[in-house]
Design goal:
78% helix; PAP2/HPO; mainly alpha; single chain; 13 helices; transmembrane helix
């Protein structure tokens, strides 16, 4: 027993030079975790808000299948052409730059995926680990389903003989991939900010304003740039919202029953707990 303590003492004496830096980083992380914990809403408020959002999403986006069938049968709609021309009627450099900037992330899949991973890591660090999994998981599911829907509907994109096309995109048109991916990522961030936190910190408002801006503006930007028809954008909002609603329902189901939460918060304890307990019991018996 003395020999073991001796080894421990030797290890304590061999501390790394950057130990102070590590301690400062740990203190910073703990302060951020405490800040997030203090801003959390009571559980009954979380449940009530989430249920309202889920019902609203399901009602609003119930007509998606009908729209998908209609644009499959009628790929070019006069109303779509009219709407796009109205959007493009007052083109100017400032508006061009704004619309291109809004769509930029969707045009850079690697950069967008990096942002998703960094956001998930931020949630993980502040002990919102189930939320971190949903940030990554919902974005992946949205991308896969968007590709599948585009293949099924097989609607061509707008062409230069009908409207102005600023950036020629490839692939099929319905539903808009940009809109679906933005609703999946930014919409989830907005929803988590709305149902998890009280509005008593400045960053609570950032979690609402920035995601809301991208979700609202991505649709008009796709029409303005001539990459999608208005019905493509509407379909993207519909199906993206439906996915978001289902994801929130699943999230609340897992959260309310504590499923995965203990494992995610204390992975070592749950994966190696029984082994550690038996080892400690053996050491106590030996002593």
């Amino acid at each position: 027993m003395y020999y073991i303590n001796g080894e421990v003492e030797d290890m304590k004496q061999e501390k790394p030079v950057n130990e102070q830096l590590q301690e400062n980083m740990q203190e910073t992380v703990e302060k951020v975790q405490q800040e997030v914990t203090e801003s959390r809403s009571p559980w009954y408020m979380v449940s009530r808000r989430a249920q309202f959002l889920i019902v609203a999403y399901l009602i609003i986006f119930a007509a998606f299948s009908l729209l998908a069938w209609f644009v499959h049968v009628h790929p070019i709609l006069s109303v779509d052409v009219t709407i796009t021309k109205e959007f493009q009627e007052n083109k100017n450099p400032i508006l061009n730059g704004l619309m291109i900037a809004v769509s930029f992330l969707g045009n850079q899949p690697i950069l967008f995926f990096a942002l998703i991973i960094l956001t998930a890591l931020a949630f993980w660090v502040v002990r919102l680990r189930l939320e971190a999994l949903f940030v990554v998981g919902l974005s992946i599911v949205s991308t896969v389903l968007n590709l599948l829907l585009k293949y099924i509907v097989s609607r061509p994109r707008p062409t230069a003989n009908l409207v102005d096309v600023f950036q020629r995109a490839t692939g099929q048109s319905f539903p808009s991939g940009h809109v679906m991916s933005y609703v999946a990522f930014w919409g989830l961030i907005f929803s988590l900010g709305l149902i998890l936190f009280r509005r008593d910190r400045w960053w609570n408002y950032v979690l609402l304003i920035v995601p809301a801006f991208f979700v609202v503006m991505v649709g008009p930007s796709r029409i303005y740039l001539g990459d999608h028809w208005a019905s493509d954008v509407l379909g993207g909002y519909m199906f993206g919202g439906l996915l978001l609603g289902l994801a929130l329902w699943l999230y609340m189901f897992l959260k309310s029953r504590g499923i995965l939460t203990p494992l995610l918060n204390n992975p070592k304890e749950h994966l190696f707990g029984s082994r550690s307990s038996s080892h400690n019991a053996h050491r106590s018996a030996s002593s």
